[in-house]
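[SOLVED] Need 3D model of a two-part complex

Original post:
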Amino acid sequence: MSARRAWLVAARELRADLRQPDGVVAAATFMAALILLQSIVVGPQVARESGVAPALYWIALLFAALVTALRSFDRELEDDALDAVLALPGGRDALYAGKVLALAGTLALVGLVGGLLAIAFLDLAIALPGHLGLATALGIVALPGIVVLDVALTLRLRARAALVPVLALPVLVPQLVAATSASAAALAGDASASLAWSALLLAIALVYAVLGLTIVPTAIE
Amino acid sequence: MPAMQPSARLERATVALEDRVILRAIDLEVAPGITVLRGPNGAGKTTALRALAGLLPLLRGAREVAGELLYLGHRPQLLHGLSVRENLAFFMAFRGRGGDAAAAIARWGLAADADRPVERLSVGQRRRAALARLDAEPCDVIVLDEPFAELDQEGVGLVREALNAAVARGAAVLIASHAHPEIDRDAVRVYSIHDGALAGA
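Solution:
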């Protein structure tokens, strides 16, 4: 797979997102709304003490990823733009890797906005900021590989908007558990637990990337 | 005169979609020059082209392409949100070609609209923008699905010029098209397809 071609697809994707930011705006709005509602419905004290805040943060980011990836592939289906990329030499690998890179960039932005809102509205005290940053970064890296794979595999299915979360969620449980646990441990000041869960996130990211690069190029139509 | 080597071919190619056989063991050879694939709606023209472009898996048979292939479907295949210039620049960069798309944009009469998002262009302009890839990405094998659809007379003339230039540099061109006698005259071979089977060449 060519890194240059993957980067070209990612840059094309991000440029289109800038011009048509509806997917990214929907994802960020969803994330912000969930955190604000959490601060009202659960309250900052419960959110802090029971580790609810990290769990809801990662669930919100997961749905933000699904919304963004679905929008991204919807745009490819308009005017059959997808066919043009698939017919290019090395287009299938580059399409998957480029979409993963672009989604990771978008999620980093949405995750940062959500993280700042969570800190502000839930009044979170962060015991280990560096560990939290690492856990968040690896959690974000682990998400796009499987989300893009899932959306790509359901591309030509009817009712895929409903099918995508149903098919993705079971596979995403390890990522959600690891990211939530790593973040909660960093907030609570448990360095070794945070690092152990972060290592698992790295492994998950690698496994999903290999799976995606193996399956998508042969399966996507 | 020795027979020309095909630049691309489908050999005994069978394609099924949703449990229905669309192509039935067809042998299709595309040699340098223009090859036309004729047939009524639903005969399997687009499926044959997509199979040759590697966009559809073959249930049985083989596909061979010598060199780089450019596939232009019956829709423009341009990414919404990007301009004509950005779309063309992406394809050129992906194939590792230098230069900019300005010459192709000017030739297809799109200079004034080159920086507008493609979704804001008219159907005909979008069609021209897609066909500008013929100039921006000179490939060895060119596969075109109904390239004259939605074009005015000037646009049809531009397509023929671009195809003649491609043939002059040795490209093999496959066109799926309804009646276009001018193209039939330029063609080195005309296939007819009916109900997924080639009726003759």
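Edit: Strands of chain B lie at 8-17, 20-30, 33-38, 60-65, 69-72, 141-145, 172-176, 189-194, 197-200.
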